[in-house]
Design brief:
This protein folds into 2 domains: about 160 residues, P-loop containing nucleotide triphosphate hydrolases (Rossmann fold); about 70 residues, no CATH class. It contains 10 helices and 10 strands. It has a 6-stranded mixed beta sheet, sandwiched between helices. A 4-stranded antiparallel beta sheet has the order 2-1-4-5, with helices on one face. Bound molecules: adenosine-5'-triphosphate and magnesium ion. The site of adenosine-5'-triphosphate has 11 residues, from helix 1.
Length: about 250
Amino acid sequence: MALFEASQLSVSFGGIKAVNEVSFAIEPGEVFSIIGPNGAGKTTIFNLISHFYPLEAGEMHFEGEDISGIPTHRVAELGIARTFQNTELFEHETVLNNMLIGRHVHRSTNLAAELLHLPSVRAQELAFRDRIEQVIDLLDLQRYREQRIGSLPYGVRKMVEIARALCLDPKLLLLDEPSSGLNPEETEDVAFWIEDIVEDLGITVAMVEHDMNLVATVSSRVMALADGAVLATGSAAEIQNHPEVQRAYLGD
Ligand SMILES: Nc1ncnc2c1ncn2[C@@H]1O[C@H](COP(=O)(O)OP(=O)(O)OP(=O)(O)O)[C@@H](O)[C@H]1O
Ligand SMILES: [Mg+2]
């Protein structure tokens, strides 16, 4: 069974179909990449999956369950986390505090238990702290943990955003242009982190990305979009050599 399945997703803005009957499936354990020229609808697909935008038509299934109409907060609870094309972190807070912020999503205790400081609350708190430490280790963020976001280089901020999403313990991680603004060396590091996230943490990744080297290095499959519609889905090599994909990038 696919981990995530999108059938005929559509949404329009001001009469223009930003996403037009897009279907795809993401299998567990893969890195599924979405490429396409600016404005193709890539981020909009992530916004539909995250339920930031309501679907106009189509259906989404996650682990076999229809999630088309669920409220936005349920998305993270079910195990879908994301990063943003332009990092959205709390500039004046430390790395550690930014990671703590996502925590409420995974609390299953109620307020009364919390006020009474029941052992279940303490256990969850400790488990979450353990998770944060695991993620800090995995992404090599130890030396930045007490630093404020505003004082950090862009490449580190991008990693903190990925770290924050990982703290939610997702099954599916959506990365919107993880390499944008990074130099080639940092981009190579991103490829290693993505491999670690998939292999060590067992998380499935969907990635929007312009850097074709990164796409070719990490992707199991690639879906190319243009003008809101799917042009082709296949291996990175198949997609790079696809005549329609080449035309979409070069223009007619
Ligand atoms: N909230 C919105 N309101 C109006 N138009 C929108 C909105 N979100 C997206 N669009 C439009 O939908 C189209 C697809 O945008 P989207 O951000 O998904 O592109 P993209 O493929 O992520 O591009 P890029 O590579 O530049 O990030 C664009 O024409 C964009 O202007
Ligand atoms: Mg985008």
